[in-house]
Amino acid sequence: xxxxxxxxxxxxxxGAIYAVVALGLTLIYGVLHIVNFAHGSLLxxxxxxxxxxxxxTGIDPYAALPILAVGFFALGxxxxxxxxxxxxxxxxxxxxxxxxxxxxxxxxxxxALWSSNTRTIDLPYAFDVVEVLGAFIPLPKAIGFFAALGxxxxxxxxxxxxxxxxxxxxxxxxxxxxxxxxxxxxHIYAMCFGLGTxxxxxxxxxxxxxxxxxxxxxxxxxxxxxxxxxxxxxGSFPGALVGGLLLGVVEAVxxxxxxxxxxxxxxxxxxxLVLLFRPTGLFGAKxx
Amino acid sequence: MSRALGWLMLAAALAIPQVSGSSAWLxxxxxxxxxxxxxxxxxxxxxxxxxxxxxHAAFFGTGAYIAAILQVRYGVNPWIAGLGGxxxxxxxxxxxxxxxxxxxxxxxxxxxxxxxxxxxFRVLANAVAITGGGQxxxxxxxxxxxxxxxxxxxxxxxxxxxxxxxxxLIARWLEASRFGAWLVAVxxxxxxxxxxxxxxxxxxxxAIALSAAMAGTAGxxxxxxxLYLDAGVAYGGHVSVEALLGPIVGGLGTALGPVVGAILLxxxxxxxxxxxxxxxxxxxxxxxxxxxxxxxxxxNGVVGWLKRWGQR
Lengths: 288, 312
Fold this sequence. Notes:
The complex is a heterodimer of chains A (288) and B (312).
Chain A lengths: L3 H29 L6 H19 L3 H28 L3 H23 L14 E4 L2 E4 H23 L1 H11 L1 H6 L4 H23 L9 H16 L4 H22 L1 H18 L11
Antiparallel strand pairs in A: 1-2
Helix pairs in contact in A: 1-5, 1-8, 1-9, 1-10, 2-3, 2-4, 2-8, 2-9, 3-4, 3-8, 5-6, 5-8, 6-8, 9-10, 9-11, 10-11
Chain B lengths: L1 H18 L3 H26 L8 H18 L3 H25 L4 H21 L9 E2 L14 H24 L1 H11 L1 H6 L4 H27 L1 E2 L1 H5 L1 H14 L6 H20 L5 H16 L3 H11 L1
Antiparallel strand pairs in B: 1-2
Helix pairs in contact in B: 1-6, 2-6, 2-9, 2-11, 2-12, 3-4, 3-5, 3-9, 4-9, 6-7, 7-9, 11-12, 11-14, 12-13
């Protein structure tokens, strides 16, 4: 039992960051109805961006968050406008293949440029801990947890209360109707892709202080992100949040009892089971 | 048109060992043809059946591991072990297809679930003892036709030419047979196909079993060729990616597409290696770029474009 509580708390802190990654993915799916296979690779790219920015200027990862979020927002906007949209020809499988192509280029480009070495950053406060319910949590994980919840909150308010948010929801619900009332649908699509990519950059800033980066992490994360999104219901905001937290806990607890290597299976098994038995997710109302 | 292209390619294939008998030259063609055949396996399910799998590594790796484990751990003759690998690939394919199609997974959901299955296999193969775990599995060198190992590269090359021809014939059979017509009907419109009385579930199940058995065959040949396996090479994500790149570049749902695609991609990869040197990952960067460009400008692939051009 004294092992279980720290595992659960650790899982929650990781899960909050999974939730931010998943929010980006679910936003893109909910509005564009496309499965963005490059999401994990963009996360990996963002992790490298945090790493190199820290190495070059010594900037704290948390302070780099706004810079990277803006930069990756622009990147996502451009990817949607210049690559994904022209390639689609109105076919879903073309988009799936195009995002896979982008993922292949980013993953292997990183491998070619930066080799497969594992990189981490050293921060003076990396080993500080805070006590929660008698368990000790590393300080960066605690910061990550609350920052992740904050980001989710900001995104939620932006979608609910701003003009852009209203336009996004209009396009998600009824594309033709939105076009008729003068919303530039292509622009909104690209904005969503940009926002989703910005989420990934934010997650990377919160993740790197306690994590590492290799060209392969994107591949691992894309499945985690998809599992989170599918678990919560494709396109569902609260679903992505709860799904992320749940998945973090499952991973930590499975790792505790099954060991690190087999613990990974827990996520895939959940993914397969949810896809098979409840493809609309725990919170999804629409049929897949 | 495409028939003429097929005969032309076969003639070229038979001439390749005459051009040069060097090991590097033949090894290039052997690996290219192996992935052409793996691409054909994927093409059967995705090109003709419209079911896009992101996890063909699950079938490839299972075929390779069963063939290797049967001969290394149980002393089974490699040819018989190979048959076991083919059957094993097919059975795993049928099982994954059964659960996926039973629960109505389509499109992106099917792609994701196959990817997840491949990852489960990879993690398991890395963790259990019978596969040799992280150390991998070494097949002892025993040259001789009876051991499914060939002293000279040329024999292996001709074996792969035969394999690729068999793959093209399977695709041609799909184009001409009743089963193939059912499969294409399912691809075009599943609900309409069902309304016409086609047993959609059975047709998809047969297609994935066939496709997976072919992928398993590619795995068996891979194991005999390189005599070494670990979880990464057998079940790695790059195997699933290789399986789908060739057909898309060459022409989805065409018999020669996967072969043309594999030759183009591997030729390009090799040329890039010659220009910039051997950097890991570089060939896949190029493949990804080619994939996106093809989707943008030639969505029907090279063979699809040639066909359209020939009809003018």
